[in-house]
Amino acid sequence: MTEPTQGPDPWKSFRGVMAGTLILEAIVVLLALPVVGAVGGGLNPASTGYLVGVAVLLVLMAGVQKRPWAIWANLAVQVLLIAGWVVYPGVGFMGLLFTVVWLLIAYLRAEVLRRQKRGLLPGQQPPTD
What we know:
Pfam families: DUF4233 (PF14017). The protein is an all-alpha fold. It has helices at residues 10-38, 45-62, 70-82, 89-118.
């Protein structure tokens, strides 16, 4: 007996997008180190620890994207990045930009979930002969 074939898992690719976004965001945060050092108030142990700590947190968050609460935790981390305005306004601005990105991702997640519940995803359609 053959088992029915399953279509592609939309959540697997969605988790990949979220993890990739977090890794990209970590790289951008680390690229802020020389900017804060040269243009901002200069790097001190607190600002260096903050930027490296946020980058490490973002990389660690990329590993928990299978959890149902992950997208909301990703949005919460953006508040921590916006608070970087104290370190350098450009860091806080990065936080605002990535907040917009995560709000868009949350919207897309809701849209995929809505379509999945209604059976409208391509993988849920009967095969055409």
